[in-house]
Amino acid sequence: MADYLKENSIAHMDYKNVELLKKFLSTHGQIQSRNRTGLTAVNQRQLAQAVKRSRFMGLLPYISY
After folding, report:
1. Which residues pair with 6 in a beta bridge?
2. 42: domain CATH number?
């Protein structure tokens, strides 16, 4: 599986880009693993940090039912 960010020329994972972050969340709102996302380790850490910041700012829910 190729890196989604590299394929789509996305240089920076931004916490305000909610639509991009939702692609990497499960239906229950959990961050998917590297095996499922296909991201590199560096990009997976950036994803986790962006999701956590977005949740703190109220842009993403912590859980979804």
Report:
1. none
2. 4.10.640.10
Predicted TM-score (pTM) of this structure: 0.89
- The residue range of the domain holding 48 is 4-57
Q: Which tokens sit at 34? A: 């590297």
Tell which residue, 27, 24, 29, has the closest CA to residue 3.
Answer: 24
Helices (H), 1-65: 4-7, 18-22, 34-37, 41-57
In a domain, 28, yes or no: yes
Residue-wise pLDDT tens for the chain (65 aa)? Answer: 578 888 888 888 999 999 999 999 999 999 999 999 999 999 999 999 999 999 999 999 998 77
